[in-house]
Specification:
Number of strands of chain A: 11
Largest sheet of chain A: 7 strands, mixed
Order of helices and strands of chain B: EEEEEEEEEEE
Structural class of chain A: mainly beta
Largest interface: A-B, 27 and 25 residues
Shape of chain B: globular
Structural class of chain B: mainly beta
Low-confidence stretches of chain B: none
Oligomer: heterodimer
Mean pLDDT of chain B: 96
Radius of gyration of chain A: 13 Å
Number of helices of chain B: 0
Number of strands of chain B: 11
Number of helices of chain A: 0
Strand content of chain A: over 45%
Helix content of chain A: under 10%
Distance between the termini of chain B: 41 Å
Amino acid sequence: DTGVSQDPRHKITKRGQNVTFRCDPISEHNRLYWYRQTLGQGPEFLTYFQNEAQLEKSRLLSDRFSAERPKGSFSTLEIQRTEQGDSAMYLCASSQQPNQPQHFGDGTRLSIL
Amino acid sequence: EDQVTQSPEALRLQEGESSSLNCSYTVSGLRGLFWYRQDPGKGPEFLFTLYSAGEEKEKERLKATLTKKESFLHITAPKPEDSATYLCAVQGGSEKLVFGKGMKLTVNP
């Protein structure tokens, strides 16, 4: 069990640029979740996949955000035309069954200049 | 809408001073209540899942309990290494977790 891996750990970019994050879940987990966490808050749900199917998206996920999981393994989260308010920690989690614990990676911290 | 409220927001304890953290929740159809620990700059680390009222789980100095409206995380004789932010989350009709804001625990030696 190598855990959930996220890359990069830190990303600094200028406002208006596009950024992409990658998440590699625990290998036998077919469910993959994306959350966003800002300072002093708990994680907020963005979207989740069962295998390659994206089954739910939060209202937080504006049309500038897109997530994919093309082969049901790793996932990418892209933010287009970044804004100051996008600065946050982006967390990925995976689980084996719907009501089993979700195991988190250490996140990608995004800073918008 | 599912909601989670954690109290207190921050807690300072002396080493060995036991206490409890509260997590109040409203959810339509509880699938599970989850406790996580989060260290600075890290992702949440899973501690416990509770599925039904009356259930209890223990791990080292931590014990989690669940009623129909709230959960408690009891910390017995804490050590400085227990210092962290403790997060409570519920899973209701959807697979998403709804988190509280967390409770920052500091244990002084």
